[in-house]
Amino acid sequence: MSHYFPGSSNFTIEGGTFNTVTHQYQSPKGVLESLRKYVAHGAFHDSGERFDPPKCHPNTRIAIIKRITDWISGLNGDTRDALIMWLHGAAGAGKSAIAQTIAEILHGQHFFLATFFFSRNDPQRGAAKWLVTTLVYQLATKLPQVFRERVALTLEQDPLIVTKSLETQFMALVREPLLELLHSGFSTNNHIVVIIDGLDECDDPKVQARIIDLSFSLLDSRDLPLKILITSRPEIDISSSFDTKPFSMLARIALDHNYQSDCDIRQFLTDKFNEIKTQHPLRSHISIGWPAVDSLHTLVQKSSGQFIYASTVMKYVASARHRPTHRLEVILGIQLPKAGDNPFAELDALYRHILMGVEDVDLILQIIGFVVFHPPDYSNSVTFIEAFLSLAPGDVQLLMQDLSSLISVEIYPDHPYGVEVLTIRILHASLKDYLLDQSRSQGFFLDRVKMHTQFAELCLAHMTELPSLESNSPLQPFTGMSPYVLIRLNFYVLTA
């Protein structure tokens, strides 16, 4: 069977592409061989390089997995028209585990699937250079022959296509071959699905935004049976790009308290502790009632809805070379770790990477220090912090935008006076532990004595500058620099 490509000197013979000018023949197998040199093998969902990849623990994340699979299958009326879904959440919230689980479900259901799992620590997966070719390679191995034939034609006509811009590659190697496939009579009951995980780990924020733009451009005409799932932290360049996109084409999922993450984390911890009690070499020395209920509760609270804390803890506790009961006591602060032993190495590396990527880190640490050490009242408002630290209105939001995966600037819920007050919320309870432990945070250490001294000096300076301020308004303590709040704050930092 032969197939002629209009407007070209190419036609197919026995599944390969023959050029009548160059007299060159390229088989579909040759197409894959040509692409293979430009493929990030570790980006596949089933890559041996990523074994054993993180995925959702059994009987957890049920609601969110259902929402994503319903979107892919068109079963959710609210998201049926959306061709792109953005799953976003704090650092360590479990986005990659969800993406991996979705990929395995789709693979098991024989969907046409292509994935790219970004990773900043991998030279091939830390950049977008091979994003398109990696996706195309996977599609070429699964879609009907016409797709491969069109890709072969493009590569034969322009062997350097793989070095051109992402825009050019997307159009020439994805869109046009898919259109050719549709024109050949191809149809499917399911959408072709592309999963791009960890977009924030792509090394260039501008490229991150371009990938989003290109995804929408690819599907703008709604003439391809293709859906794209993108997961990332809510970084500023990524969020800004999504905010400009058509509402009808985009479905968003925020990994927040609405998805019962605390319940899922408790289930995960309970199952892992049970595994230790039944499989660990020292299981005969572990009591049935271990761990105590309050210990489990503490671990759930410390997780703050982010699976990375719970996962890090259980990897440490479950070590077959150590006594689990002792290691749990180290985690809970009851016992000190041995010299050179860092139970939270993986978590510390994450925090260090994020903090190293921000500008003016000293000022940011001062703001975080205020949130960590301030007295428990409403003086945690952004307006108060800006006034207290002599910052311009809006500075806190600008400074914190690169820490959105660790810290949220949000409206304080249920304010007693019914006004909208922006506050700072630390998303990871364990971040405070990291910052207050110099052996872990090193250059990012929050020195309690030093910061209390700085805040006391600022209190005294403001009280000297504003001796005539009166505080008659009930809103004043939350929105301005009233002497009432300064006196309370000064007393707190001097006596803490």
TrEMBL record:
It holds the Pfam family NPHP3_N. Keywords: Repeat. Transmembrane segments: none annotated. InterPro entries: NPHP3-like_N (IPR056884), P-loop_NTPase (IPR027417). Coiled coil: none annotated. Residues 79-233 form the Nephrocystin 3-like N-terminal domain. This is Nephrocystin 3-like N-terminal domain-containing protein. It comes from Psilocybe cyanescens.
